[in-house]
Every structure is written in structure tokens, then in C-alpha cells.
Amino acid sequence: MTPQELRAFCLSFDASVEDFPFNPQTSVFKVLGRLFALTNLDARPLTVNLKCDPEDAVRLRTEHEGLIVAGWHMNKRHWNTVTVDGELPDRLVRELIEDSYDLVVAGLPRADRLRLDRP
Known about the structure:
The protein is α+β, with helices and mostly antiparallel strands. It is built from 4 helices and 6 strands. The protein has a 6-stranded antiparallel sheet with strand order 1-2-3-4-6-5, covered by helices on one side.
């Protein structure tokens, strides 16, 4: 997955936006103001921090040692840092991004979740 593909995929979700609250290099992808992905699109290797169910987070770190690690500068129980350099299948990376988005949406107030479901 290229940096452009990563950005496009993150922005493909309903109500997602890209923001730069920390510095001009760090892309923060949010849904209704809540972070679901954080990356430096110019970094090599390309990595992205993603929210994850705590049990899945540990399993993924074990199954993909070195490619999926505890979230850098994040709550290590709920966030993973995923290396997006081609060693992990793009399909898995997309699933992890979508799972992160879904977890964040699930934590939104009910009215906001219902608003996202509208066409």
C-alpha cells in the first residue's frame, strides 16, 4: 500500500477527514472529531497507528511480530502501530483500518452514529 492509497482509503469512510494538529508531517484521520488513524505519510518505512480491540491487538502482535507492534506514543492496550511496507497483505491493512474506524464510531454518541448511517 502506497502513502497515497493509505490516505485515500482512510478518507473513503463516511465523515472522515484528514487533520494536522501536531505538525505538518503527521496526518491524523478522524471521524466526527475522533482519531482513528495517525501516520507520517513521508516516513520510511510507512507506519500507521490504529485503534484495536485489546485482545485482537495482542494476537496481531504475536502473529505479525515486528510488523504490528504496540502503538507508538499511544495507549498500548488499545492501539497498534502497523508497518505498511508490503510485507503485510494490503487486504489485512485495509481490514485493520476499517476495524479502527468502526471501533471509534462505536464509541460515538448514538445520535452521531445514526447520522453516519444515513445515505
